[in-house]
Write a structure and sequence with these properties.
binds pyridoxal-5'-phosphate; Aspartate Aminotransferase, domain 2; Aspartate Aminotransferase, domain 1; four-stranded antiparallel β-sheet; alpha/beta; about 400 residues; globular
């Protein structure tokens, strides 16, 4: 029903992906494949509903409508079998703001907070900003190139000051959709050591068959009792610009603690247009999302084919989720700056440097493949030309 062959040009639309090209890559002459939003049009039924709302000429204060939360609760239940009540849900303008709120609510200065690198950089940035300590339990790479959690290493590092774990579920940038048995192991550790879990599930809808998303709090009652979950439409429906997500906290004690900080900051109620967009996306977005995932998977496969042509230079991490490819580029050069230079100068592509995601990301690049079929064909062609040149002559980077 929906067409992902082409997309609307975002140049001159104040898109951050484009306005920051010069600053981040030193040139405007690149295709930006960095920040995690899509160069794919937001679903038309969402944009239409927002346009429709503007027919009423008054845009005064409004509370978050129950129907908005209800649409999300129904979505989480029908797609993942997870059950939440309206009373569990809170509005948030950003997952990163929710992470900060949880850090302040559930830990003190100097406490340890667990993350598993390589990971979305705002996890460790937030911990440091709040003057807490990062307790890193690095993910481990398996022989097939995929990544896994190291539970024994985690247990060996936990101490009395370890209060919170920030889980990336699914995991940006390594593209894992954590399997239920892996999450159960993590849950057992957190229950045993009294560790609260912040489960960031912002990429949860972007899991490819045969894999399915497991909502951490949906595993069982114990999980529900210790988890703050973050859900949203930002990644799924390309709605990051409406700044609207939710936090689900079924445990009343945890909710009260979270609310103390939340109310101090005054998160307010979101914008009128965001309420409409959020509700429409969850009410009517199933087919659009299912078709989007078929398209994204095709993009991933075309990148995989290309990588398999040049195994001496690039190795693509097998993924189960997200539209982010995690590419081992150590065959191009040992130095990550040089690798980035290759992508900018030779392929004219602006990727995210792996080192931004933690030490173990060194030598990797993250490529956002959420683009139209037409754009993906161009990206593959550019990369192919640059890599074949690399294999023919020694390029001085
Ligand atoms: C794992 C993860 N969490 C949170 C965010 C950002 O969410 P928000 O824009 O709602 O703060 C991103 C964006 O890339 C992300 O990848």
């Amino acid at each position: 029903m929906f067409n992902f062959d082409t997309s609307t040009d975002r140049q001159n639309s104040n898109s951050e992906k484009y306005t920051k090209k010069q600053k981040l890559f030193g040139t405007n002459d690149i295709t930006p494949l960095w920040v995690a939003d899509m160069d794919i049009d937001t679903p038309p039924f969402v944009v239409d509903a927002m346009t429709d709302r503007l027919k009423h000429p008054v845009l005064g204060y409004e509370g978050v409508p129950h129907s908005m939360y209800q649409a999300q609760i129904s979505w989480l239940h029908r797609r993942y079998g997870a059950k939440f009540d309206i009373d569990d849900m809170l509005y948030s303008p950003s997952v990163v703001a929710s992470i900060g709120t949880a850090i302040e609510a559930f830990s003190d200065i100097g406490d340890n907070i667990i993350i598993q690198t390589p990971v979305y950089p705002q996890f460790f940035n937030s911990i440091k900003r709040y003057k807490r300590e990062v307790l890193d339990n690095p993910l481990v790479q398996k022989p097939d190139g995929s990544w896994t959690m190291d539970i024994p290493n985690l247990i060996s590092q936990i101490d009395k000051k370890t209060k919170l774990l920030i889980l990336c579920n699914p995991h940006n940038p390594v593209g894992r959709s954590w399997h239920k048995d892996e999450l159960e192991q993590l849950l057992d550790v957190c229950v045993q050591y009294n560790i609260i879990v912040f489960s960031d599930e912002i990429h949860g809808d972007l899991v490819y068959a045969p894999h399915t998303h497991t909502v951490f709090a949906g595993i069982n009652d114990k999980a529900k009792d210790i988890t703050i979950s973050a859900f949203g439409v930002g990644k799924t429906f390309n709605l990051a610009g409406i700044s609207t997500s939710t936090v689900a906290i079924p445990n009343q004690n945890l909710k009260d603690k979270f609310m103390e900080v939340y109310n101090k900051i005054h998160f307010a109620q979101g914008s009128i247009l965001s309420h409409v967009a959020f509700e429409m996306a969850y009410k009517y977005g199933d087919i659009w999302l299912d078709e989007l995932k078929v398209h994204l998977w095709q993009n991933y496969l075309s990148l995989k084919n290309l990588c398999e042509k040049y195994p001496q230079y690039i190795k693509l991490t097998p993924i189960e989720a997200t539209y982010l490819a995690w590419i081992d580029c150590r065959g191009i050069d040992k130095n990550s700056k040089q690798i980035e230079k290759f992508f900018i100068l030779k392929a004219k592509l602006g990727l995210s440097r792996g080192i931004f995601f933690g030490k173990s990301g060194s030598g990797f690049m993250r490529l956002n493949f959420a683009i139209s079929k037409e754009a993906m064909t161009k990206v593959i062609a550019r990369l192919d030309t640059a890599l074949s040149e690399l294999s023919r002559v020694h390029i001085n980077l």
